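User: My collaborator sent over this chain with a note saying "see what the structure looks like." That's all I know about it. Can you take a look?
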Amino acid sequence: MGLDGRSDRHDLVAVEEPMEVRVNGAPFAVIMRTPGSDRELAAGFLLAEDVVRGSHELGVIEHCEDVDEEGRGNTLNVTVTGEAVERLASRLSERRQVTMTAACGLCGRRTIESLRTHAAPITGRWHVGAAVVTGLPHTLRQAQDGFQATGGVHAAGLFSLDGALEVIAEDVGRHNAVDKIVGRRLLEDRLPLDRAMLVLSGRTSFELVQKSLLAGIPLIAAVSAPSSLAIELATASGITLCGFVRGERFNVYAGGQRIG
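Assistant: Without extra context I'll predict from the sequence alone. Here is the result:
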């Protein structure tokens, strides 16, 4: 609306739609997401949910045809094998069926202590210069086509140690963007990501550190602040956690030995 009155214009907005994830035919979760990279999102989500622990436990991931018109293209069935079948039964018995919002992630269901039972601490002993870290958000921002068009999506980027962007994902949910990246590497059988850095366009929550830990990512850099529990988990698991990476400055909240 201008000072001289109202005007009608078309605007581009971010798409948000529900995706139902079924595992071995059983309903598992409904994720509110931006369509695209759905197979990767489902794979990364199941890794974070501790249903699968490697690509060897993943079978076919395909869209379901036995759904109504509204669900067509928005319903995925993931086939899991081996020990993942037993974990699936356990997860189904302990979780309640809820619709996960784009901002929810795992809603803090898991504790730091429970993560220690199967997630090995991060041990990557490499170093990265501060100048490399400060340049990461700018590189990510330049590749955020969805954000530039709509202003309504978050981004996550996976970077090599020399600061080169390898994978980017955008989504209305921060957690979904990370799951899409991790899921892609999982399907490529390239985990753990022990020589990679994760860059986030927003803040860092406990759930995002958890996803990084399960994927083996040693460093997280975000343009905004971390939560207290995110710092606790990063410290306990050996992850370098950087926040407020803006301009030539940033804060290091955990794992400072990798910077320098």
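A starting point for your reply to your collaborator: The helical segments are 38-48, 83-94, 112-115, 130-142, 145-150, 174-187, 206-215, 228-237.
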